[in-house]
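Sat 14:20. Reprocessing the chain from the morning session after the first attempt stalled halfway. Input below, unchanged.
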Amino acid sequence: MTNFKQLTLMLAVLLGLVTLAPALAFAQSYGASVTANTSANVGAAGASANVSGSATLTAAETKAISRGDQEITRRIQALNDLNTRVQGMQAVTDSFKQNLAASIQTEITTLTTLKAKIDADTDLATLKTDIQSITKSYRVYVLILPQGRIAAAADRVVTIVSMMSTLGSKLQARVQTASSAGNDTTALTAALTDMSSKLQDAQTQAQAAVTATASLQPDNGNATVMASNTAALKQARTDIQTATKDLQAARKDITTVVSGLAKFNANVNASSTTQTSTTP
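Finished this time. Tokens:
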């Protein structure tokens, strides 16, 4: 039974990894806090740039370009990190991985081109427009990143489902052995049945989360598209939360079965000890 307890502990640790905090935060902030953050940076640059015709024009341009470069560099780094995670996913389809990787690479290429344009801008009005387009046209933090992170969370869910299912099969064999030995395994069998149901639902919810975000597209200021994206991210967030609760319930079922089998073994050992001590 020690091995089962160790596996249960390992699964508990893995379950703690099934979190979508970054993606959920991005889903909730779609069109709000992220835009406000970038707009604040652009606004600061714009304030300096509004001194057109003054002696500080060159300094204002340099400051605005620096801010724009920082915003783009930060996004490109986040995209590269996400791409690494995408390639390491095991449970999502190859098609989804390829599509997401292609979207990431397209965004990186577009941002790189935009950075070159910003660096070459000589007109303050054009420069400010280009910097603002980082948020308006290339909404990385509220679209591609949460999509990728939701997929990563779903991938972790499916991985843990597989591990728990393997453990469940081993526990099922132990329960059958205990039943054959005359033990009442009704409660343990019910726990295994519930665990199987929860794991199946967790996998279903994980796939639903990926499906919900598969059709996300840049809104480019289109309120209808933005609303659709927001709804999809919200639904995916709910799906992952449900999957996480399913895994937590399955973990409790595993604990119930392991504890029950341990008691059966304790009773057998106690009976053996009693028989040995009373044997003439």
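The longest helix spans residues 223-278.
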